[in-house]
Amino acid sequence: DGARYYEMLAPGARRAVLLTTFDDDSQQLYPSLIEVARPPTRVNLVSALEELRGQIELSRKKGRTTTMHVVFTGHGELSGGDGGARFSLLDEPWTRDDMVERVIAPQWADFTHLVVDACNAYFLVQGRGWKNDEVEDPEYDRAVQSYLTAGNVLHRYPRTGILLSTAGAQEVHEWGAYRSGVFSHQLRSALVGAADVDGDGLLRYDEIEAYVAAANAAVRNPKARISVTAQAPRQDRGAPFLRLGSLEPSARLLIPEGKRGRFVIEDERGLRYADVTTGGDRDLVLALMATGRAGARFHVQYADQEATVEIGGETDVPLGALAWTDARAQARSAVSEDFRANLFAVPFSADFHRGYTASLRSQGPVVIEGPGPNDLARWGIEVTGGAGQSIVGEGFGSSAGLGLRYGGRGGWFGRLTLELGVSSATLSPDARSEGLRHFAWGGGGGYALELGGGVVVGPELSVQHLIAVESGDDGRARADRTGLRGTAGLFGGVHLGDWYVGLGAGPAVNILSVLERDGDFTYLDDTSFLQFEGRLLLRRDF
Q: Which of 129, 347, 496, 511 has the fewest beta carbons under 10 Å from its own?
């Protein structure tokens, strides 16, 4: 499936990366991709995303509109520890947090489109999935949907859309006749132009969802029926998943209005390319992709006839210009008869599209409960203000600062800080009262415990390098001091969307040193004082 998606999308893309390891049979089918493909390891996947990011940034600097497609097909399972979904790579799992943090959240492009066709098997008709002692396949499907659609994940990242393969209460399937996942074959059939119900050359999420629904509508076995989950980018619900003009096909098959029925298209390798069942209510233009294949051709079956489209001649090939002959007889298998007889049995037309989308609107929004992305690490910019009273000696101080925080709403976090402040203190060793103006920078961190409703509490600690200007009662500067400032304490606050408001309190110790001169002697004057401080913090997360 990965190779087929690559063959479809790569010719029209400015940058495309294929991560897969071909078995012996696949190496015979895709010889030109063996050198292109990289092993599907975590390092290679992260590197591929960074390559796409670089290309996207370059294109955006040139004023171009950018779109990124990420297609994941493979094994999936639920991790036993935290119940989260993860996907198998060669070396280590790609977790649901990885999927959100590295694919959904970055939004480098104007629009990001994510396809997930998870699970796997290598039998003629066999449920593709995983099993363990605790969870069945349907719960995996629901878990993936729940994580990606719950907790306002897509609400927070409005330029990202998703297409997920599911099978209701049962499994997602492969079929030997397709040599592919059933959902992936249906999706690719839609993307070559079969789902373009209004003929504008833009394949939108509602068109794709309705096309897959039509393809599965007549399947009798509820365990085999696929139900796609489609959510368009919230920034623009009408944003196309794909523009047909970007495919750069080797040829285009033109099916005229009035031609009703099912078309099955295979390539010269014997691979099923697309299934199209049209209601005859519109002209169809199907993109035939054969880039890099010498001697490429496509075989079209319609009713009991078949014809061949040779690649290398005219780009636009009218259906009526083909030479038709009697179709070859095909052996039938009882185990796959439901798929063979009923997949793509219902014609896809404008009427079906209108009826399907109207039924979705009448159902109202679907609410799927599940964990939100509050634990995802994010950057935040903080503004702080504090005031404190000296514990040892007399004195009072106040400060203001800026911070850069990285971490989740819950769990461990770190921060970098800059601070300006003024204070007065009784400094040792001569017990004189001094005024201090200080500048401090450093870092720290802590742990946030989520209590629900956006409320968090926890401990925090910071260490800063300190430079202080000392002045006496007359306001004149006496000396510049340098040293360390350490703070510890407890905090509590509440998240309001991407904003956070919190309060903290705890001790702060200031250790200062200065070189002083007395006649011919120079000596180091050390002093320290302890304060109890309260702090107010306002943060904006990104």
A: 496
Question: Range with the lowest mean pLDDT among 45-59, 344-358, 430-444?
Answer: 344-358
409: confidence class by pLDDT, cuts 50, 70, 90: confident
Which pLDDT tens digit goes with each residue over 232-289? 998 898 999 999 999 989 999 999 999 999 999 999 988 899 999 998 999 999 999 9
The total of other beta-carbon atoms located within 10 Å of residue 414's CB is 13
- In the sheet with 251-255, reading across from the earlier edge strand, the strands are 284-288, 251-255, 316-318
Report how far apart, in Å, the C-alpha atoms of 202 and of each of 157, 205, 206, 229, 428 are. Answer: 22, 10, 11, 19, 76
Strand bridging mode 251-255 / 316-318? parallel
Structure tokens at 56: 């996207």
- Between 79 and 523, residue with greater pLDDT: 79
Phi, psi of 344 (to 5 degrees): 60, 25
What distance in Å separates the CA atoms of residue 503 and residue 491, rounded to the nearest whole number? 6
pLDDT (average), residues 376-397? 76
Render pLDDT for 110-136 as a digit per residue (tens, 0 to 9): 999 998 886 532 222 223 333 333 334
Question: Per the structure block, which two tokens stand in for 76?
Answer: 């999936």
Return phi, psi of residue 456, to 5°.
-130, 150
Q: 39: part of which helix (H) or strand (E)?
A: none
Answer yes or no: are the C-beta atoms of 125 and 335 closer than 8 Å.
yes
> pTM of the full predicted structure?
0.60
- The sign one gets for the Cα dihedral 120, 221, 165, 370 is negative
Collect all residues with Cβ–Cβ distance below 8 Å to 519 and sequence separation of at least 6: none
Token readout for 29 is: 């089918």
**Ordered DSSP codes for 329-369:** P----GGGHHHHHHTT-SPB-HHHHHHHHHHHHHH------
Rounded Cα distance between 70 and 88, Å, is 16
CA pseudo-torsion sign 35, 178, 123, 328: negative
Strand ranges, E, within 79-170 = 85-87, 94-95, 111-118, 125-128, 160-164
Residue whose C-alpha is closest to residue 209's, from 162, 150, 151: 162
Q: How many helices (H) and strands (E) does the chain have?
A: 10, 28
Largest Cα span, the chain: 114
